[in-house]
Each structure stands twice: as structure tokens, then as C-alpha cells.
Amino acid sequence: MRRLIQGLAILFFLTAFSAVACIAAIFIITGDDPLTASRTGMAELSIRVRSDELNTPAGNADTPVRFTVEPGTSTIGIASNLFGNGLITDAELFVNYTIANDIATELEAGTYFLTNSMTIPEIAIALTDSNSSQLPFRILEGWRMEEVAASIDQSGLFGFTGDEFMATVQRGADVPQDFAAYVGLPDGASLEGFLYPDTYVLPPGITALELRDTLLQTFREHVTIQMVNDALEQDLSIFEAVTLASIAEREAVHNEEFPLIMSVYRNRLVEGMTLGADPTVQYALNGTRGRWWSNITRADYTGVISPYNTYINEGLPPGPIASAGIESITAAIYPQETEFLFFRAACDRSGYHEFAKTYEDHLQNGCGG
Q1: CB neighbours of 158 closer than 8 A, spacing ≥ 6?
Q2: Are 133 and 42 in contact (CB under 8 A)?
Q3: I need a labelling partner for 352 at 20 to 30 A (CA). Which of 36, 69, 211, 312 fits?
Q4: pTM (predicted TM-score)
Q5: What's the rounded Cα separation, in Å, for the pair 90 and 99?
Q6: CA atoms of 14 and 8, how far apart (whole Å)
Q7: Tens-digit pLDDT profile for residues 150-164
Q8: What is the C-alpha to C-alpha distance for residues 332 and 260, in angstroms, rounded to an integer?
Q9: Angstrom distance (rounded) from CA 187 to CA 368
């Protein structure tokens, strides 16, 4: 009996010793964290088994989605939000990928622009570098301020609304005084015409005020002090030049016609004639016919009562009617020298125009029938 007890005691000791040795070995191998090692192992097994799902995007839409990771959000919380935004199809698989690849702790707070055509690995890697996130935005020549605001809302990428942006640029807004002085902006005038049309790559956290300032700074970078001085030598402020340019933006289809169209406008101003520009009537309608640039009739030439209607008012309208690009602004300051006083769309529907010195020639350029 004593030998049996001794044998059992020895067996227990050897078993305990082996267990301790195994546990010690596990701690040595896993860096004193066997739970993490176990979790990592399970995660690695999961992504190996489900590699096809891992590399299959949630969809095929390339439209960016604004996605924000708030400070302190856990990996599980991030995965849940990704799933809720339709960017991934399995939150657990995302978590397992970050664990298996040791990047769970590298996910950064910030704002990102993701698409559901991205795979889980692509999204996970993107979320490790908030500084690389950029907001694409484009403003087209000939857009009204309201169209810029609508594009802000339609993109869904900004942290502010189109209305909030409008509050920074509309009539009566607090405009930077150095910019107002640079372009000769009248007191209380809006920034219509000066929201420089270009393709922008913006920081994701940009505010409405910062966007406004970016557009104005880009305008100043393109419209140089030399252009300002050359315009002033002609008794023309940049505000007036942009007013002319904005009208041409809505008239011209082909940019090479800007200098010719501008020569007509400048000649008519010298002659004391009205500009007679359709886009100013469209602007005066202010979207009341369902579109910002709706078709107009001959009756509108005299029937639309507004200081912007250049059929019934001599000289320039009160201000620009749309965003003007550098080519139209350059043409306003440096127009082609001609004797043309009239132009109309060519009958071949090419988008080009026919120019005339006299009203009789202008009528001859009409499309009969």
C-alpha cells in the first residue's frame, strides 16, 4: 500500500512538472501572453479558411463614402460601423484580419473616404494612415454658387452642408478684406464668380470657411497681380473683368472663342449698347423655372425685370453670374481687337458662333426657315 501511494505521488509530481514546463514553454514562445497567441492563431485560421470572402468586396460601387473613426473606438466598433455603412459584409472577418496581421492597434482615428469595391485588407490598411486620406472635389466653369453648394451635398463627403457653405459666400457674408481689395469687390457683394473652378484634393476635415478660403486663394494664384494691374490700366477692375468672363463662360462652348466674344462685349460697352446676353436673363430668373440655366424666350428679353437683365439695362450687370476660369478672365482683360458688335450661334450646331460688325450682317447670319 505504501508503495502504491509512493508511486502515485511520483506520478503526480512528474505530471505537475510536465504541465509547469509546458506552460513555461508557452510563455517563452508567446511572449508571456498565451491568450493573445491563441486568439491570433484562431484569427489566422479564420482568414485562411475564408480567404475568398476576405478578398471579395462588399460591392462594386466606386463612389467614396465618408467614414470617420472616432478616438478610442475599438476594432470591434470600427468593424461594426464598416458593416453598417455597407463597406464590408462581415465584421468578425475584418476583426480577425486585423488581429492576424497585427494591425488592430494601428487603426487610426480620423476621416477616410472608402468605397465598397475595396476588399477587407484594402480597407484595413487604409485605416492605418489617416494622413493619406484626401477629399476629391471639382468645380466646373460656369457654375453658380448654388451649383457648388449642391455638389457639396451630392458628394456626401464633406462634414458640412451646402447651405453652411453658402453662408460663407453669399451676399452680406463676412468676406476676407484682403481678397475684396485685390479684386475690387463692392461692399456687401457675394463671392459669385470667384469660387475658382478647378479639381481639388482637400483634407478630409476641411470646414466650410476653409473651403471658401481655398477657392479664393486658388483664384489669386491664377489671376496674377500683373493681370490686376493690366486691367486697372484699362479702368477695369478684376470684379468687372470677372463679371464679363462669367457671362462668356455661359455663352462659349469652345474656349478659343473667348477673345472674340469678349471683343464684342467690350465694343458694345464702348458704343453704349446693351450687352444683350442670354445668360444674364437666365441668371435673373434665379431657378424659378426648375433649373438654374433654363431656356428663355424672346419675351423674356424685356419681360424679366432685373438689374441682371442685360437686354433692358446698359453696362455690366451688378456682378458675376457664375464661376469664371482663367481663360475667360484672361480674354476679358486681353480681348481680341475686332470691330464686331454681334454674334450668334452658328447654324451647323457645332457650338461655334458667327460674328458680325453690323446688325444687317448679324441678321444674314441667322438660320433661315
Answers
A1: 66, 135, 152, 206, 211
A2: no
A3: 312
A4: 0.79
A5: 15
A6: 10
A7: 999 999 899 999 999
A8: 10
A9: 47
